[in-house]
Specification:
Length: 252
Amino acid sequence: MKRIYTLLTALTTMFSICNAQTTEQPMPTIKQMTKGNNEISITLINHGSLAVEYKGFVIQIDPVANFGGKQFDYKKNFKKTDVILVTHEHGDHLNPQTIEQLSSADTKILLNAKSQAQLGKGEIMNNGDEVTIGEIKIKAVPAYNTTPGRENFHPKGNGNGYLLTIDGTQIYISGDTEDIPEMKELKDIDLAFLSANQPYTMTPQQLVNAAKMFEPARLVPYHLGETSFDAIRNGLDTEATFCKYELWEQLR
């Protein structure tokens, strides 16, 4: 049976949007129930930065405290983290100072090879690699550009997206990518974060095409830049009868 989609918007009474005087980014949070009826909490921090929490276990994805004039105080809002995932080496995804602030002696840092070379530590994950930490399985999946003239932004084989399997529930974080054919291999995705920031990642139509490839139950466009919400909305309203989607202004 096809899933019914709805548009969920963030009300200003719930999540305020940063103005010129505001330095810290608000933190909308998504709740996802697992197949075993346990709660996963995903905090949408800024741009490409996310935090996934499950039973007190925390995964920080591309943690960057300062981006685009917006600041986020990780120390105030999060404890030392269990795992840090870095998709690739660009400054809006890899920030050594933020990683150091979040790390303890027990923190696992998983990242692509170029990020490891810059950071000087961590365990390299190449496309296709899998690891299980505690109750969470982490798989590195491809993330790259395909449009002629844009391949140099994110070349094939360098960066990662990540697929998290938590208590039978699958969460896909695309990283910086276009609508690549490998997305057709994704199955039974419960929650997907797809990047849409021209010219570096997907156009709105590519995002719609990507979503159609693997039909996630829930979809959150992120890493947005100046991306047109109307273009995403129009494409999903007419084509995406398989999911519900959420558009968050804060993730620009």
